[in-house]
Amino acid sequence: MERIETDLCVIGAGSGGLSVAAGAVQMGARVVLVEAGEMGGDCLNAGCVPSKALLAAGKAAQAMRTAGAFGIRPVEPEIDFAAVKDHVARTIAAIAPHDSQERFEGLGVRVLRDWGRFVSPTELRVGARTVVARRFVIATGSRPLLPPIPGLDRVKALTNETIFALRERPEHLIVIGGGPVGIEMAQAHRRLGSRVTVIAGEKALPKDDPELAAVLLDRLRAEGVEIVEGARAEAVQPLAHGLEVTAGDRRIAGSHLLVAAGRKPALDALDPAAAGVEVTEKGVKVGPDLRSSNRRIYAVGDAAGGPQFTHLAGYHASVVIRSILFGLPSKATALIPHVTYTEPELAQIGLTEAQAREIHGDRLEVLRVPVAGSDRAQAEAATEGLVKLMVARGRPVGVSIVAPHAGEMIGLWAMALASGAKLSTVAGLVLPYPTLNELSKRAAGAYFSPKLFDSRVVRTAVRTLQRLLP
Length: 470
Fold this sequence. Notes:
Blueprint: E1 2-11, H1 15-26, E2 31-34, H2 41-46, H3 48-65, H4 81-95, H5 101-107, E3 110-112, E4 116-120, E5 123-126, E6 129-138, E7 142-144, E8 157-158, E9 172-176, H6 180-191, E10 195-200, H7 210-222, E11 226-229, E12 233-239, E13 242-247, E14 250-254, E15 256-259, E16 263-265, E17 279-280, E18 283-284, E19 297-299, H8 310-326, E20 338-340, E21 345-350, H9 353-360, E22 364-370, H10 375-379, E23 386-392, E24 395-403, H11 406-419, H12 423-427, H13 438-453, H14 456-468
Parallel strand pairs: 1-2, 1-6, 2-3, 6-19, 8-15, 9-10, 9-15, 10-11
Antiparallel strand pairs: 4-5, 5-6, 7-16, 12-13, 13-14, 17-18, 20-21, 21-24, 22-23, 23-24
Pfam family, one: Pyr_redox_dim
Binding site for NAD(+): 177-184, 262
EC number: 1.16.1.1
């Protein structure tokens, strides 16, 4: 059996693992990367990338239906569903070389394509090899959670790992789960010609601001997506042609079923207990420095048990590299934005209004700027939405946006909150006209407007100065 000694062993070649491996090897560390599945992990192959490609195809189809606002005759698009999936596959293929085994071996990483299993606190068994490392990083990601619904095992239930392989358009797609994944796939498939029903156990988009989530959900309903809230899926049974889901007092028949009801960390094959790594149902139990109960072993991304975002995994990588390579104290403390990439998009950074009121009470000010006030939005006939700004003691503490390109707009606020900037900084920005980010500047300015324009002291001072100035 081959014995490989190294400085760092990274387990998992998704976003977090690849970022750790690339950063560490380029700074001089010996790195072994272990991956049994596809390089690039869930994000490239079954998550962020294919879902956004599918959403883009749906957006193109919808633009043809709604062109009348621009004086262009609207038409019902002819959709070749298999060709749409070819577009998805081409998108993955275009990005794949950046995450490939060849690229990482070119950087100097030793890549082992097999399952890894801990056999001691310092050893990982990988096929016929044993990797002995000074430090390990668990970056194994997560897998779709299949809830214990009676009858679910009797039908072919799709997940994000399998839905992108469909070459024939679902006649009626039933989605169990009203989170971002379920909502994104609902809009994409509806726009590509499928009938879609979403079953949400409580509310759809429960982690987002309900005022803004309602704007997006109304849009989906207007496009023909049926959203059933407050009705948990209680049973599934096969039919001669498709399946039926019982949810509350309803029985919903469909041709295909997508389960988007959450995810679980992919740790079972790793045997973390053999390495003295404590885990919970959410993932590896880590501290703010992302170290596990075994101080030699870190966890990043979904495996670390926090929010499941690709960009969070990439941020985690920067945190652990600082600690592993330089021995410097480093903690994961950044505010992490999240986005639902529908049309309109829904984005959030920091506290929602409800969270901010709980923390700041009467000191909280909430400012709202409608997207319809944007000249750019008017020009593009895309005026649905809202920028909602939470302010405490003159500083932004949270921002919620539902708007076209909200995912791009939230970047300004991510920088503002990360740097501790005052609202006056955002209000004083000079932004190109016309852009949607003028809405963010306007929201910041709305905090100061009453203090300036409705202030008797300011008005009196200006009148006095006008008499005195030469």
